[in-house]
User: Fold this.
Amino acid sequence: MNAEPALPVTLTHSGIEAKGTILGLEGRAVVPVLGAAVLSVLLVALMVTGSEGSLFVRLAFALCPLALTTAYVVSLVHRRPPHFARDVGWWAMSHARGILFAQPGDGLGFNTRPELLKRSTLKLS
Assistant:
């Protein structure tokens, strides 16, 4: 008899890492974009029929939810690690807090040269 050699079986776990794409966006990133598209279509319908003024301005206003949501998804969600948007938000808030609430002499914020404060002729009392 002719016995064919068995092919080796290698587990790849590809189902865990595989992410499908819809409209070119990975995983569930398409859901907010589709929701914003529905909202924009409703706003276009309302703006075209019931408002006065320039049609271009009304359409631009109505398409803002779709444009802003798509910009958010493409810049912070699509092809990024799972918690990238949250990490960027925390990083931005911590740096904004350091800039906005810095004390003179900390070396942070807008007043990085405290010696200029001492030479100031403006009296704050």
Q: What stands out?
A: Residues 3 and 87 are 57 Å apart (CA to CA). The first strand starts at residue 21 and ends at 22.
